[in-house]
Specification:
Largest interface: A-B, 76 and 76 residues
Organism (chains A, B): Vararia minispora EC-137
Shape of chain A: elongated
Oligomer: homodimer
Helix content of chain A: 10-25%
Protein name (chains A, B): Molybdopterin binding oxidoreductase
Distance between the termini of chain A: 91 Å
CATH topology of the largest domain in chain A: Sulfite Oxidase, Chain A, domain 2
Structural class of chain A: alpha+beta
Largest sheet of chain A: 5 strands, mixed
CATH superfamily of the largest domain in chain A: Oxidoreductase, molybdopterin-binding domain
CATH architecture of the largest domain in chain A: Alpha-Beta Complex
Strand content of chain A: 25-35%
CATH class of the largest domain in chain A: Alpha Beta
Number of helices of chain A: 11
Number of domains of chain A: 3
Radius of gyration of chain A: 26 Å
Chain lengths: 499, 499
């Protein structure tokens, strides 16, 4: 069996699938699997099980795709955090994220919308049609022939618009949409050097350019997508203006990632890489490109990845009242320390993270606050990775911290167009839970050993064989103060007035 | 076996217990029981299992107390929320809480510190000693003889200082202390008419008054308490000045609650009721009262219920650097609607809750905000229960709400001394997680049917047989907008500029 199906060229195939989906009796997920985000998330790995999407595939006799996808995960993405097993959504771990400017292919996050197709590269053809002057089919060998198309390498950060969604879920749950919204943390972002050809040049050279009415390019992938009882190939679009921008470097057809062949789960043999845009536009396993006068009518483009306003939700959301998320705004995250970590320090805490801006902007400045956003400290340029037009910067700062107890660290970045981030999660909350770009805030428990009382407590703990403050909420087994000292103090400063 | 033990008069008994506790091999709680509050709380009932305290009791051969306590719970408190099975901590449900000014005995919250003692009322004696002019022992019959002691009835709200602790736990976990800090919601508060005798008058009549050095009265209960490997009877104290205040009505020895005999779990046959103070001072199953020059050295008085400052925690907390919680500050809570509830309304939401102030103050004003604390609306006196010197007021307000989506309702009360509540949980966070008296905030999802788009969506849902917005995050199975309308709108207001 071919491990993917083309739907878009075969209306009778879609009609049959639709009728199968309407008559099939679907089972409900087991009670132990939370339906979307009102229940606390499980701490299992995978975190969520894609029960419904497996059912959809099975109803159409496509169960093999489900199995093949998971085997691909185990082969190519074994060590990342599996947020949703099918369609696969996997998040890079903190230590993997901060290993360097480029993310290792095996650690780069994955947000798939369908199963992984098993494409035979030798038989593969990319079809380009619609409002082009000359429709063509190109083999991989033709595309990769440098005498036909000049090749490009671009360092690109790809970010899922769900990055940091967990912060929106925690405060204000939103739309479950057609599939479960993956509860992404800070690791739905990664950077690689992509190697391929510019779409602009392929259109010009192979298709003799586009027709005057063309304003958008639609990308169709080999993965199968479901929406409201209907079946599709994954399809998205970007404006022609984007394809043509800055010499064509912003929209690549890529077959290499960090000097290696594109992994199967990342779109092998060929994918789009759209720099500065939401990851969803970087269509994987692309089999067809359509030149269109208007944006794609595919559900991923038209009905999803919409940025709704605050009062829009289940009671009034329509597709036309959210705007389509394309370019990504400035954002950042603290990766170390972690939320709720106990940090023992002597007045300075090393804080590390990433900062990124899309839409052709890059990061100019990163500021970190030790007090919930009252005072801000700037990171030094020497403590940030180098600038790229289309990539993030990793940063480190030695942050002065005096206060003990629960403190709130937060970070905000400024990009080359002077954009900075909204203040609180609520400042940019939206029903579909996209683009959590507010200043990233974490709570840590600060223990400052420059204080004599704290050093005394640590010594006392050691006397009792206790080496760690973990778990923070477990009581210490010894008396916190001897009776003599206690009485001296309370007699000197009694609670009640004497008159 | 007697289902309680007196420890405080028998140093050799305490020494033996201490040595048993030090040599006993205690088992750890099963992994599925969260150790204190860093893991999400279970949604079981009981919520938490008092593993360690059961182990302590069993080590001393007092397992029967554990069983007797739980049987008492099932008999007297079956229908409330069991937060901790042993020592029993149970919280009043929302509907029970709002039934009226007085809380039904079977619904009144319970915060016990040890097992329930099984006292034979006929053999019971209250011993009064220490710095009194005449130490005495009084039988229940003597105390209840109106020719000896004038009887009093006072309407008193008792509140655990842990009320609304869950808000502190959720944001900033703190001390697990010697036993698990119960994750109280808004129901660790209740009101009853207590009937008994004034302690002031008992001291005067039966003991011929106290000696000049006496400044505090210590109450010792029949329940067994453990702290740092040592064993005690429950013991707390209040200032003599409190006992003498306002004619003695603020500190009662009570045997009736709402016209019925004191339930076993509430302190039968005799308890203290200390109006305006933290519930912990209202000692249940009182067997001895000591007149002292200084506050009780019992661990509950001296080492717990301390109100620490913000930077005090595991690294530096000592008993003398928190102050003892006695009088309770002004506080309030929203009971209806509930956190994360979907509220369908037509521009007005009925909000209900309680408001209380201790320390001799009463509630003058309650204000509710529909927008996180920006604008406030005052409740009308006719929509509040009557004033008492020592009791809460329940309140209702019809709150104007226009906005849709996630809104934050909050409440603040003002008392007769013009005190009001801190703004945020963080404003009064403290390591032992006591006195969560900040403005109570809940998030609700507002759906306003005065809007035509919302009415249209509700009609469309009905056409598809969907009667409810629950669960909020489950997607609607139909298209949110037809293609024709979608195209009209996006063509009229295209995303990209034309030039």
């Amino acid at each position: 069996m071919r491990r993917y199906i083309e739907w878009e060229k075969y209306p009778e195939r879609k009609a049959l699938a639709r009728s199968l989906l309407r008559t099939h009796k679907f089972s409900l997920p087991p009670a132990c699997i939370p339906e979307f985000q009102l229940a606390p998330l499980p701490t299992t790995n995978p975190v969520l099980i894609g029960h419904r999407w497996k059912e959809y595939h099975n109803a159409l006799g496509l169960g093999e795709i489900v199995d093949f996808s998971w085997h691909t995960v185990l082969r190519e993405k074994k060590d990342i955090i599996h947020l949703l097993d099918f369609p696969y959504n996997g998040e890079t771990r903190r230590d993997q994220l901060m290993q360097g400017k480029l993310t290792d292919n095996k650690y780069h996050f994955i947000r798939n919308h369908g199963g992984v197709p098993n494409i035979d590269a030798a038989a593969y053809e990319l079809e380009i049609g619609g409002l082009v002057n000359k429709p063509v089919k190109l083999t991989l060998a033709e595309l990769q022939d440098p005498s036909k198309f000049p090749q490009e390498e671009v360092t690109v950060t790809i970010q899922c618009s769900g990055t940091r969604r967990i912060e929106q879920i925690g405060q204000y749950p939103g739309d479950g949409d057609e599939l479960i919204n993956a509860p992404w943390g800070e690791g739905a972002i990664g950077t690689a050097v992509y190697h391929g050809v510019s779409l602009k040049k392929v259109l010009k050279i192979a298709c003799s350019g586009v027709q005057p009415e063309c304003a958008h390019l639609e990308f169709i992938g080999a993965d199968t997508y479901f929406k409201k009882g209907d079946v599709f190939n994954y399809a998205v679009s970007v404006p022609l203006r984007k394809v043509r921008a800055t010499g064509g470097e912003e929209v690549l057809l890529a077959w290499e990632m960090n000097g290696k062949p594109l992994p199967q789960i990342h779109g092998y043999p060929l994918r789009l890489v759209v720099a500065g845009y939401i990851g969803a536009r970087s269509c994987k396993w692309v089999t067809r490109i359509n030149a269109l006068a208007e944006p794609s009518m595919g559900p991923v483009q038209r009905q999803e990845y919409l940025y709704y306003s605050f009062q829009t939700g289940k009671q009034n959301a329509e597709y036309s009242n959210g705007f389509s998320i394309q370019a990504m705004p400035v954002s950042s995250a603290i990766i170390f320390p972690e939320e709720k970590q106990i940090v023992v320090h002597s007045g300075t805490i090393e804080v590390k993270g990433w900062a990124y801006s899309g839409g052709g902007n890059w990061i100019e400045r990163v500021e970190v606050s030790p007090d919930g956003g009252h005072a801000w400290y700037e990171t030094h340029q020497d403590e940030m990775t180098e600038k790229h037009y289309h990539a993030w910067r990793l940063w480190t700062i030695k942050l002065p911290v005096d206060a003990e107890g629960w403190i709130e660290l937060c970070v905000r970045a400024w990009d080359s167009a002077n954009n900075t981030q909204p203040t609180f999660v609520r400042s940019a909350w939206n029903w579909d839970l996209h683009v959590t770009s507010s200043a990233h805030r974490i709570k840590i428990y600060s223990i400052n050993t420059s204080r004599s009382e704290t050093r005394r407590r640590i010594a006392l703990m050691k006397e009792h064989g206790i080496e760690s403050f973990e778990p923070l909420t477990r009581p210490l087994p010894f008396a916190l103060e001897d009776e003599k000292k206690y009485l001296e103090t309370v007699r000197r400063y009694p609670r009640e007035p004497t008159s």
